[in-house]
Amino acid sequence: MSKMKMADGSTVLRRNRPGTKAKDFCRWPDEPFEEMDSTLAVQQYIQQLIRHNPANIDLILKMPDSQDEGVWKYEHLRQFCMELNGLAVRLQGECHPETCTQMTATEQWIFLCAAHKTPKECPAIDYTRHTLDGAACLLNSNKYFPSRVSIKESSVAKLGSVCRRVYRIFSHAYFHHRSIFDEFENETCLCKRFTQFVTKYNLMSKDNLIVPILEEDSTPGESEA
Q1: What does the pLDDT look like over 78-100, one tens digit per residue?
Q2: Are 98 and 84 in contact (CB under 8 A)?
Q3: What letter does residue 113 receive in the DSSP assignment?
Q4: Would you list the DSSP string of 34-62?
Q5: Lowest mean pLDDT among 25-39, 47-61, 151-165, 172-186
């Protein structure tokens, strides 16, 4: 089923015909943000912008004037985690526990997995799964995020730690599975969008942004920080 906007402004569900291609599932007309009246309006708007052109990062990250900033950050992070599952699936083809025994990025960075009672080393693919599962559990928690319209500042403060952990998936892919990273990034611009997002909202220290995806991060000394 997909949504279709009628001439009178109403929205109806449209049943997709058998044999409809996946790329055609989301081909409904764009809708201005101010006309979206669902509690999922921010998610819908972000996905609409990405679907239209994933490379137009400035537009995707430009918050509407009327939007609550905490909700805007939250919905973007949810979207990043959903899209990162696509990278995780691709990594499974060559990121095996026997070859990538630790979650590493360059020879200087080894990350401990926080999914355990006491943080410990995990094979990189397990770390990836655990991190995305943990992020999903937190972002879907009714305790911290009971509303998609308004979010408490104490809950917004938790987004930074999620960003730091999921970013490590990008860094491992970049430094150890470069062909997979490049193919995925060329299609989605996800790492560049994520890097601009966390930089714009000060959700991560620049010292931890080790993938040289932005021009200003291309200095060799900075990329190894």
Answers
A1: 999 999 999 999 999 999 999 99
A2: no
A3: B
A4: GG--STTHHHHHHHHHHHH-TT-HHHHH-
A5: 25-39
